[in-house]
Amino acid sequence: MLKGIIGLLAGAAALAQPAAAQSPDPVLIRAAVLRVDDPGLPPISRLDLPPADLGFAGARLAIEDNDTTGRFMGQDFEAEEVTATPDTAEAELARLLDDGIEFVVLLADDATTLALADQAGDRAMVFNAMARGDNLRGADCRFNTIHVAPSRAMLADGLAQFLMWKNWPRWFLIHGSHPQDQAMADAYRTAAAKFGARIVEEREFEDTGGARRTDSGHVQVQAQMPVFTQRAAEHDIVITADEADVFAAHLPYLTWDPRPVAGSAGLVPRSWHPAMEAWGGTQFQNRFERLAARPIREADYQTWLSLRIVGEAATRTNSGDPETLKAFILSDDFDVAGFKGQALTVRDWDHQVRQPILLTTGVLTTSVSPQDQYLHQTSQLDTLGIDRPETQCQFPETP
């Protein structure tokens, strides 16, 4: 009888072998994350020094998430991690394109993002996971680019809505001397006009260089900041536009008048925050921290969301064909969850991802915009940023 049982088992195994051999291999969906590191001044605080895996950690979590569903759908996901400098970015992107990768997540500044999007052309869909320039969503928009990072206009509008809800309409605007600071200041000027605030005074803090993290640096700033903000027009709040990270972090508690600070320091508008716990955020934070052994940053979240957009499209279409995925991402049927309380979609007029803006302090999320009283005929999220009637973006009728 034992021989008979063994024979039956051997026969079953023999029958199973051809079936296993015939099972199709998973469809591989390839992407890349290209991070362009531009060595500049270190941040004011050593706590803000960028980790070596900035952005890449978010990509790794996204691939894990995509594969969780993909293994049941016969799909496999991968994302190549590439670091470059402004001088080598073009060559690295060319290599990725020649390798057949059609989804590229970019972590770069405004000018580099635009140049690389032009280089990619119709060979790849580009996900802008860092650049905030409103021009990239306006006059310089590109059909092949999805803007996952919120624009400066979205960040400014999110903060402005909250300040108007607080009945703090008088703003003292302090901006830096770098081009990105000026661009952020422009966004705050537009937001003030849009929501009925009034900028009572503006001042520019000129970056004169020098060490900012020396032993005596805080002593110099402690004496400098009160004098710099002295005799300002009567205001409710100080708004800072300091994307270059030169001065804003020094302003809280050092202004001449006892006023709150917002913008680049104090109450800061962000796409994500490591203390966010609502709408499943705790579970998301825990998974990231187990993977990366550090708190998440905005670049990580924006990279994660970029690759989750690809994964969501693959799941919903049950396809690994890049052209099918691109078309679905840009369709009215697409949305993706982002742990922000509502589905995130892509605006058809500038390819900006609609998303709430978190208003954060160092340790928690104070509020989330859009605020309840700001309504919109299409989507409340379209109260943040450049709406369809105001857009300067003109896509070709046929990509």
What does this 3D model show about the protein?
The protein has 399 residues and is an alpha/beta fold. The protein folds into 2 domains: 26-150 and 271-355, 3-Layer(aba) Sandwich (Rossmann fold), CATH 3.40.50.2300; 153-269, 3-Layer(aba) Sandwich (Rossmann fold). It has 10 helices and 12 strands. It has a 5-stranded parallel beta sheet with strand order 2-1-3-4-5, with helices on both faces.
Q: So, CATH architecture of the largest domain? A: 3-Layer(aba) Sandwich
Average pLDDT, to the nearest integer?
Answer: 92
Strand order of the largest sheet: 2-1-3-4-5
Query: What is the number of E strands?
Result: 12
Largest sheet: 5 strands, parallel
CATH topology of the largest domain: Rossmann fold
Q: What percentage of amino acids are in beta strands?
A: 15-25%
User: What distance lies between the first and last C-alpha atoms, to the nearest angstrom?
Assistant: 70 Å
Query: C-alpha Rg, in Å?
Result: 24 Å
Uncertain residue ranges = 12-21
Which shape, going by the Cα principal axes? globular
